[in-house]
Design goal:
Helices cover 26% and strands 24% of the residues.
Length: 146
């Protein structure tokens, strides 16, 4: 069986690299050849957009939620960070909450934020999530269950 490199960069280099050896030579390999693995040619750098956190209005608490299901389906983990209207950290938590899919993890993170807010008798809560599917679902722009 003949090995065919995935990009031309592999043809013009020696393995292992001639640099100082690292404890993880596979990591060096991925850094050198990672941009070639999928398309056969080096990819241009990915552009970066800066997004800044903005505090909520006076009297409100803002919560940034995130859910994670590393295996689909798999264990669900949620994490919430609460800040007041001045941007100061008020509370936060992470926990394992069950078994499911990534969408269920994101929804569980919001549910746990609401339950936490009720426990502390806060009346105004602003929820921020990185899941556009969850946001659109909660705003009833899309229906996820037929």
């Amino acid at each position: 069986m003949r090995f065919t490199p995935l990009c031309s960069a592999a043809l013009n280099s020696s393995w292992p690299p001639l640099r100082r050896p690292t404890r993880r030579p596979w990591a060096t390999f991925l850094v050198q050849f990672g941009s070639c693995l999928f398309s056969g040619r080096p990819q241009p750098p990915i552009s970066t957009t800066v997004i800044r956190w903005k505090p909520s209005q006076a009297g409100w608490h803002k919560v940034n939620v995130d859910g994670n299901a590393p295996f689909s389906p798999g264990p669900i983990f949620v994490g919430d960070i609460f800040r007041n209207s001045r941007g100061f950290f008020v509370a936060g938590f992470t926990k394992a909450v069950g078994w499911g899919f990534p969408l269920e993890a994101e929804l569980a993170a919001i549910l746990h934020a609401i339950l936490f807010t009720i426990d502390y008798s806060w009346h105004s809560l602003w929820v921020e999530s990185d899941s556009i599917l969850v946001i659109q679902t909660l705003q009833k722009r899309i229906q996820i269950v037929p």
